Sequence to fold (700 residues):
Amino acid sequence: MNEEQMTGSFFEQSSKGRIHFENLLRGVELGRYDDAYLEELIEYHRLYPWSEKFDVFYAKYAMAHKNYHVALEYIRKAYRKRKASAEIWKLLVTCHEMLGNSLETVFFQGLLKHHYGVPLQFQIPGDRLEEYLAVLTRAFDVGHYAPFHLHEAFWGGNGLEIRPSISFCEYICGFVPGRQESLPYAYWVGAYAEEEDLEGKTCLLEENKGNESLVGHCGAGTVFDFMKSRSVPGKVAIKAEGDMILPVAGTESKQIVSIEAPDAQGKWRLGKGMYSFFRLQGNTIFSSEQPFVIGEPIFLRHSPKRKKLVLNILLDALSWGEEKERNFLDVPNIIGFFKKGIIFNQHFSIAEYTYPAFAAIETGMHLQHSQIFNETASVVLDEKYKTISECMKDLGYYCASLMGNGCGVYNGVTRGYDRLLVAPYSSHVHEGVERVIRQLEAFGECDQFLMVHAADTHPWRASDYQVPVATQTHLSLKDLLPGAMSKEASVRLSHVPLYEHANLTGIRNSDRSLGVLFDYLESHYREDEYLVTLYSDHGTSVYDDFSYTFSDKQGGAALMMRGAGVPQAGFVEELVSSLDIYPMLGHVVGFEVGDWVDGNLPRIFGGKEREYVISNSIFPGKEYQLCIRTQEHEFHLQSVRPVEFDGTVDLREVNTSILLRDGSHREVKDDTLLQYFLQIAREHTKSFNNEGHVWPLEHD
Fold:
């Protein structure tokens, strides 16, 4: 792939903006917060009205004049735009400290300590020790793979110390900067078990909560059960409103709970860290000598305004570009089922790997708008943005993610689910299918929104992950060994027989298992009673002979929908983005799509057809990559400089090229077309193109 070097300014006002930025920095350094400073700031804001830097500089001005309430107002505006910025964290520490907001002070000091080595400067009061440690742990944590902590804060023999740990039989810390009140129910972490030993997994987890190796291997296949719950000190009276299900979990081994209902009374043994479910039809009292946990009640009722079942199936990394080239040979059950709905043949991912791509799907937002792109930073989605699961919860659905990797828990992306079953790196479609069927059999009396996030279709390097046995037995050593010791990340695995065979095997296994689920749905539900959406978050590199992050096989992802309200159109060649899943569900199911959503309702649903789709990689430490596709062309842009920790990048110098999308990938030289794509690129990147305007601490 040939590339044209763009040497000049990506934004025309680059030199002017740089002068104003440096003058403002000089004013801060000298403590000169005068009218000249404000004039510089107004001019900077005129050039960059979208930038958080205006809010930062004005907050500094307000702080210099001891107006900390105004300073906090502006620095919070900046934080919403740039959540991983050390400069913003510093100002938040100062404002919260001056205003007496102790937990916020601890949180932002924790971020500065963890990422930049800035010493902690607060005293932990003895009566709030656990609260402070929980908030520090949130600040130190990576953004994905709950319930694991690589850096749990605890008080040891040397004072404040750090260790790896697993949350179990405890609540996930729900601290969110700026939130004024706690929620009535929060995620409590148990162990998932059905038809097995009542406390077998509990014994293993309790013995190994601080086992660094087990944390590093994400629980070694343990399935964790996150449920929105509240604690009961020993007795609770539940007022049943019609038939309802109450989840109850024990906090001690061999715990006995007494149950008194209008027509029954007796005892039940609870599993420690394991939920049992009780059907209540009248006022019922639960009591125990030890504290226990109850989940949010599940009301058993249908509404004609809802579907009986809305099911989302995420097949991680399923490459639609490869399946198109193979004429869908590996997915006959998937194609057969969704031909009676819509199969989008030109759906492209918004990001290159799961953490940002999953967040973009669940929020309908570009990475720079949600600020969820850096998995190493502790960031929580703003509460004003509603996720898909929150919208479904508001409609009255019981919401359960029956399989997933926990990458949306800490950042709030999965906060609308009542229940989450989580097991990173151990999420097979056949298990997900069985869980869905069991869930439908158990809770079929209420309207449900279910999700399965499975990874059979995701390639992993063989040096860390057991590839399918069929791959090991069918490949000769000549084909099996090349690439077997690769240390590349999964998004950059090479095209060798080992990874191609393993991935195709996973795809075929997934399709076979999904055939069972589709047969079940067709035999138990009418077409107007359910809605099923199947999609992938991105593709894979293992079918490409050249390395490009957003090639058709890496950027091309699956997306299809069938059921109530879905046209029976079969294959559709309309361009769609992963961001469009949100407005599609909103349109078909009936929830409001907020004006913050960047997704588009496709023309097939009565919306407007996209002119282009965007894929991009905002990965700190790597060059920024952007791909813009129209029906005829694709435009590639790559920065010369790497992305900063805060997600900004200097785009004064970029490499670009335009290719035909006719299969030849022939490069096109056309200045008018280039200017068309550059205008789209400028608009898309303007909020995070820093043009070299980087805060001193962050640049170091």
